[in-house]
Every structure is written in C-alpha cells, then in structure tokens.
Amino acid sequence: MSKLLLFDFSETNDWSKWEVENDVVMGGNSTSKLESTKDGNAVFKGTVSLENNGGFASLQYHFPTKNIKGYKTALISLKGDGKTYQFRMKSNLKDRASYIYSFKTSGEWEYPSEQTIPISVG
How far lies 61's CA from each of 18, 25, 27, 89, in Å? Predict the structure, then answer.
C-alpha cells in the first residue's frame, strides 16, 4: 500500500490547520505553543500544570477526512523529551471517541521505525 503523508512541517509555512489547546478550557493553568525552528522543524513546547484540576497541553491537526482503509500503521518522525505522549485519531470531528496510542520518547530524534503506531483500519 502506498504512503499517505498527512503533514510535513519542513515543506510548508502554512500551519493554520494546527491548533494548540490547553487545560485552560476547563480551568487549568497549562500553557503551550507551536514554533518553527530555522531548520523548518516544528517545536511544541510549554508547561503542564496540575493546578485547578488541570494537566494537559495538546496539539491538534484539523484536515479533511481521509480514506485510510487498509492502512495498518501511522509513522511519526519526532524528537521527544523523554516524556510520554499520546497519538489520538477520530473518525470525524463530531465523534467523541478517539483511538489513543501512548508512546514514550527518548529525548533523541526518533524516526518512523521508532514510533510506529498500530491503527489497522478495515
């Protein structure tokens, strides 16, 4: 099966479909932002606070629905900070349920073979 590229930060300056959402939507104090490096990489950084029952910072990508029938994995190239993150996917924006896959980062560049997320759709 061919690859379906969803987004490459180094290929475009239009990041308008990416949205940062923090726990402030429910009274928390976490902060985060998405920035560009001189190399064209994206950096998602911030501080997660557990105060006021908070505890999350998220980055969401909104794009038109894609037909992913037959795909078995999602691949992410990233450089983490040693913390655990979640990959979440919904069948549509109105769907309350998400497919969730947690993964730990090493603090080094991790290429698709390192962060292969099983999705197995149809």
Answer: 4, 18, 23, 10
**Per-residue pLDDT averaged across 44-70, rounded?**
89
Domains held by the chain: number: 2
Q: H helices within 1-122, ranges in order? A: none
pLDDT tens digits along 94-118: 777 888 899 888 888 876 656 678 8
The reply to whether 8 falls in a domain is no
The parent domain of residue 100 ranges over: 64-122
- Cβ 21 vs Cβ 14: under 8 Å: no
Does one domain contain both 55 and 91? no
Q: Within 13 A of 110's CA, how many CA atoms are on the CB side?
A: 17
Note the pTM of the prediction, 2 decimals: 0.77
Q: Which amino acid is at 96?
A: R
Q: How confident is the model at residue 93 (pLDDT cuts 50, 70, 90)?
A: low
Closest of 41, 20, 16, 15 to residue 31, by C-alpha? 20
